[in-house]
Amino acid sequence: MATFLILGGTGKVGRRLVPALIQAGHQPRPASRHAAVRFDWADESTWPDALAGADGLFIVGPGSATDWSPRLARLLTLAAAGVQRAVLLSARGVEFLPGGAVDRAEQALRDGPLPWTILRPTHFSQNFTEAMFAPQDGLIAAPVGAGREPFIDVADLAEVAAAALAGGYEGQTLELSGPAAIDFPAAAATLAEVTGTPVRFADESDAAHVARLRAAGTPEGYIEWRMAMLGGIRHGDDAYLSDGVQRVLGRAPASFADWARREVPAAGAERPVERAG
Length: 277
Description:
- The protein is of the alpha/beta class.
- The protein has a single domain, classed as NAD(P)-binding Rossmann-like Domain (Rossmann fold).
- It is about 40% helix and about 15% strand.
- The chain has eleven helices and eleven strands.
- The protein has helices at about 15-25, 45-50, 70-80, 100-110, 125-130, 155-165, 185-195, 205-215, 220-235, 245-250, 255-265, and strands at about 5, 25-30, 35-40, 55-60, 85-90, 115-120, 140, 150, 170-175, 180-185, 200-205.
């Protein structure tokens, strides 16, 4: 049994990685600013206790608004005293913003002292219930036009992360996607069918989306990253499929409809309380 420190342990990926590691016979140690194991990217005094006794490290960064690669480099140096490998949650969209914060984090990992694996998933299916694509009053508004995306189920991503932490994928960048690229009207139709409530998609201009983000106080660095990723969808650059899930897990990834039928509550059903992480 190995012990794996999970940064962002209460977030979308972290809280699904915990049961995946337990199922594989390992000991997860979820950490965040508010978890029992405290880890704060902005408070380096929290790092040694979180790392103590860990065999592996799953890295979720503090966000893509600013360059956090110097902090990651210091964490990796500290971790090298006992940690055997590190797995970084990146994003396939890194190719759309070379030199950005996520790209720099990947490079810091490659340059660091630990054996590493990088995970580059597509947009999550769960973004339609827990993040940027969640319908508001039945409307999904996003600047993606007719673009298609092979959304990945975070449960599949978590299983891949668990396998990578256990070893065997060192020095590899694993590209991960769902089994088919769908457009946003199709995603809305699936959500409407599963929930039994009307859901529709409306294309949004880039300018309107940026204005909405700025009005909400979103940092400019994150806006740049988000628009680069969404632009990859709009222009058809992110519609290609990747076989990382099949290679690691030996099975096909879940489709968007598979995920929705399993995880999206019907109208009137009680929704799970989401925890920040």
